[in-house]
Amino acid sequence: MGAAAAAAAVVLVAFLCCGAAQVQQQRQLRFDGRRGEFRVLQVADMHFADGKTTPCEDVLPQQMAACSDLNTTAFIRRVILAEKPDLIVFTGLYPNSPILCFFVSPLFHILTLIYIHQKKKKTGDNIFGFDATDAAASMNAAFAPAVSSNIPWAAVLGNHDQESTLSRQGVMKHIVGMKNTLSQVNPTGVHVIDGYGNYNLEVRGVQGSNLVNKSLLNLYFLDSGDYSTVPSIPGYGWIKPSQQVWFQHTSSKLKRSYTNKPHPQKGQAPGLAYFHVPLPEYSSFDSSNFTGEKLEGAISSPTVNSGFFTTMVESGDVKAVFTGHDHLNDFCGELTGIHLCYAGGFGYHAYGKAGWARRARMVVASLEKSDKGSWGEVKSIKTWKRLDDEHLTAIDGQVLWSKSFSRKGM
């Protein structure tokens, strides 16, 4: 048995023996009873460092003198006030520093960085200089707008979050210990799983409705890794077999719960997946078949296709995937029934393009309403982006999934 297969088998045994018990969250996510909506704000690639002493990257000359990490903080506060999300999701890169943790030989890591540099002329994820002198302090400042808003929030790791004063595990543990977060280091009951920050969250029905105890929207969070640890494979890491086994069994468990009594529903509740590094399938699109912009020369995905996209297609519940990493891509394209979406670069200390506004992505799931006026299942999932301009302009609105359209195609 190969190493990957063995790891997957161990995860399966652990899952079956220990069950898929979820961490009891302090705050249960739930659809809003007035609007019948659940609103998710995605923030990608903050690259937060030391606050007001950290300069901006790739802004207009007239912006440079007064621009710092505090512009990133101000943008988060603006979009929270405008959109009033029910959940804020951070998809990687919080403390920003080039202190590289060499999990393999330094030579191999250097070769990996050379490979990445050749793929991207300007790999803004690597901002050289001791930017985040204290990873914990940097994260506290980066997440402060979410914490102070009293809105639940969740986070996954990017490929550079371990490169300051905390390890990758240490970063995730610090996040989990912060106020109002629903993040988890890893799923309860699964003792062998690659990475840190693999977990799921359930969004239950409206309080007082028949579906109050049903998860109507399932959110999956995964660690897409940092860099390959296989000397013969350069580039970024990938979602491993152990993570995919956990995802498959979690999806199956949620489907059983959705279709079981009381109030059994048909099919599966829709799901959304969040992680940092885009899948190789993001390369499937051109300007004719996506909404948004693709300004990067190439998709910065792993050189290895681990098959996670196929795993999601087979599970059937994930309707959209949301990543970051390529700051100048903000498109959504549909492939085999799943939308693959970027958020676009958010942080001002991350690479960007002068004159191209930093941006955030909103996702809103809406419930159907019965003739008797009670809230039911999810009827649609929509998305748009907010630009950090004078008017906080909303652009590129689109429907990612519709229950009526899905049923017609069955």
Describe the structure.
The protein has 410 residues and is of the alpha/beta class. The protein contains ten helices and twelve strands. The protein has a six-stranded mixed sheet with strand order 3-2-1-10-11-12. It has a six-stranded mixed sheet with strand order 4-5-6-7-9-8, with helices on one face. Strand 10 and strand 11 form a beta hairpin. Helix 8 runs parallel beside helix 9. The longest helix has 19 residues. The chain is globular and about 60 Å long. The chain starts with a helix and ends with a helix. The N terminus is likely disordered.
In short:
The chain contains 10 helices and 12 strands. The chain is of the alpha/beta class and 410 residues long.
The whole-number mean of residue pLDDT values reads 86
Overall geometric form? globular
What can be said about the biggest beta sheet? 6 strands, mixed
| Order of strands, widest sheet | 3-2-1-10-11-12
Q: Low-confidence stretches at least 5 residues in length (pLDDT < 50)?
A: 1-25, 97-130
- CA distance, first residue to last residue: 38 Å
Beta fraction: 15-25%
Briefly note the structural class of the backbone: alpha/beta
Which descriptors apply to this entry?
410 residues; 6-stranded mixed beta sheet; 10 helices; disordered N terminus
Write the layout of secondary structure elements.
Layout: H1 3-18, E1 37-43, H2 61-64, H3 69-83, E2 87-91, H4 106-119, H5 135-142, H6 144-149, E3 153-156, H7 168-176, E4 199-204, E5 215-221, H8 241-259, E6 271-274, H9 308-315, E7 318-323, E8 332-335, E9 338-342, E10 359-369, E11 375-387, E12 394-402, H10 403-408
Parallel strand pairs: 1-2, 2-3, 5-6, 6-7, 7-9
Antiparallel strand pairs: 1-10, 4-5, 8-9, 10-11, 11-12
